[in-house]
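ARCHIVE CARD
Drawer: 12
Card no.: 0347
Subject: one protein chain, sequence and derived structure
Cross-reference: see card 0346
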Amino acid sequence: MQLMCKSSEEGQEAGLGWIDARVRRFEFQDNVGRLKVPHMGWNAVSIVGEDSLVSSESLERRFYFVHSYYVECMNKSDEMFICNYGRDFVAGFHRENMWGVQFHPEKSHRFGMELFKQFLEV
């Protein structure tokens, strides 16, 4: 997901630029609820808009995250999933034939398996 963006605070090199987005580091100045970086563990995501990859039938969407950086999309129509970790952030995006997710679907049990299944059917 992060590689497809234009830029990143993680390094000096430009990303591939396929998505008009930048990668930002989580910074919690006031230590919101003592949140730690990296963000590790299970978290719920919300669907933003409609997308062929996700079904609105499944009410519960929880995925496993391990990350210190998050994506900030310049074009809100690219956003597919939103998550909250001290702030709302984009947990998944989609543009044309490209999808990217911040979480680890392979570590997300039945939720990740369902996402892989949907991806193969798109």
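Annotation on reverse: The CA atoms of residues 29 and 35 lie 10 Å apart. The mean pLDDT is 87.
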